[in-house]
Amino acid sequence: MKGQNKTLVLNETPSILLAPFHMVANLYNNRGLLRNFIARDFKVNYHGHVLGYLWSLLEPLALTLIFFLVFVILRGSSDTLLPLKIMIGILIFNSFSRTFSNCSTCLIQNSSLIQQVYFPREIFPAAIAGFRLINLLLSMIIIVPYMIYESIIPTWYIILLPISMLSCIILGQGLGMIASVIQVRIRDLKQVIDLLLRAGFFLSGVFFGAEIIPKEHLGLYFYNPIAVFIEMARAGVIGDLGVLEPTPIIRSVSLSLLIFFIGAMVFVKNERKAVKYL
Amino acid sequence: MNEDTAIKLESVTLDFPLNKSGPAFIKDIFTRRNKWREKSSFRALNKVSLEIKRGEVFGIIGPNGAGKSTILKVMAGIYAPDEGTISANGRIVLLAGLGAGFQRNLTGRENIFLSSSIYGLSSNEIKELVESIISFSGVREFIDRPLRTFSSGMKARLAFSIASHLEPEILLIDEVLAVGDSAFREKSKRRIINMVRGDTTVVLVSHSEKTLKDLCDRIACFSNGQIATLSEDADEVISKYRELSEQNKGSS
To answer: Which of A173, A244, A255, B73 has the CA that lies 20 to 30 A from B157?
Structure first.
């Protein structure tokens, strides 16, 4: 720790427009700690479990089976790609919802640590998002056997898949950062968020493709960014846009970026005040 | 800022919100919207100005609720002052409650890496120190087992061992860290005294008059978020502290 003799002014707050860049710089300067936090999340989540990391594959697989059976029994669907679509839907939606809800409680969950040591608190939501993103990448492996079975060869559309994955994580992180500073004062927000996410699960096309939505409602349906991200990921894997058009894609990705920036501003500007309520 | 100054506080004021969260907060929004801002805070620090020199051992004493721990947390950056400025020269570590970031399901070794990086050490620095941390703690045979299998004394020893290896330029200590069995306590006490005697700048909050008198170059007595007395003469400050404590007893 020697040789750091520069003067530190402890209570500087960046201007609101610079807040997101301030946050990124802080994360970069503390990347070692960020990496340790992400590693901790992996160890804590999978250590001591007999199947370890396999659980993150088994859970979406089991859910896919259930939804597929229910869907076939109810509708008698003839879509052979439906299991693949459900798998992708579940993975994308779960990553979004866990990032959002975990980020929204990050200050409360870490209150004792926050009161003991100072380091940039942006690390908490960033570590959660990083963990969820890596987890999503690793879980995506479950679609590979199905792709081989259906002999789907990836086309250049596949770039929609990483864009969709990244967008759903940063949307979750952005919303979570806004919620986290509110939640220290209004703890009921957690219940509200859980309820909204549960409703969102049924409205975002997790277990059905967008093609079953009537044409006249499709425009409205695609105002839901998560529904768009799920369709994007499916289109990327299957190599066919289907009913999806470029406009909702651009709109949803820009919306995610915007919310991420707003989230960063709200978080950086208010976490110092929020900490006093812990 | 002057090169000889380690920490400089200029009229630092800190307000704490008073119990305004949950239903009371919602009710306030609807009922007394205008009053809600004024009467809902408690002034923990009131225009505190203080300059701590490099290498100095600075003691803080005072009755409960005088703002002793709060000022350490402000110095450490945990709370940002509402008014005033604070600047510091060099790396700061606050020791208040040990074992920051300990995870019961990780092994002792993994916890050394996690906790030290939370305190601001880089992974290279940790790799160099890890052997020394393990041998000082004296829990080598358990180090690769999960922390939940440690006794509380062993956990405390590991935590203290990490804390004593941080070697910051400015060390903030809240209360005396006496942990473990008597042999370890003796060892850790010597370690603290070595840190305090070395060239580290130390700010020490304690209730023990003897500790402060023995170690500190200057002592400040806090009362109601302000510095009541600040002097190099320990006896003067301690008599003021006794006077304030008597008053507190009388009023309650």
So the answer is: B73
Average pLDDT in chain A: 88
Q: For A231-240, write each residue's pLDDT tens digit.
A: 999 999 998 8
Contacts of A44 in chain B (CB under 8 A): 103, 105-106
Task: Give CA–CA dist B155/B172, Å, rounded.
Answer: 21
Same domain, B13 and B72: yes
Average pLDDT per consecutive 10 residues, chain B (252 residues; last block may be shorter): 82 80 65 57 87 90 86 90 87 81 88 91 90 90 91 86 86 70 75 78 85 86 88 85 80 56
- Position A108 in a domain: yes
pTM for the full predicted model: 0.87
Give the end of a domain, one of B140, B167, B194.
B167
In a domain, A172, yes or no: yes
Extended strands (E) in B33-107: 41-53, 57-61, 83-89, 92-95
Q: Is residue B223 situated within a structural domain?
A: yes
With an 8 Å Cβ cutoff, are A8 and B89 in contact? yes
The answer to whether residues B17 and B82 belong to one domain is yes
Alpha-carbon distance B73 to nearest alpha carbon in chain A (angstroms): 8
Q: Which domain holds residue B54?
A: 5-91+206-251
B70 and B118 share one domain: no
**A48: chain B residues, CB-CB within 8 Å:** 105, 146
Q: Tell whether B36 and B75 lie within a shared domain.
A: yes
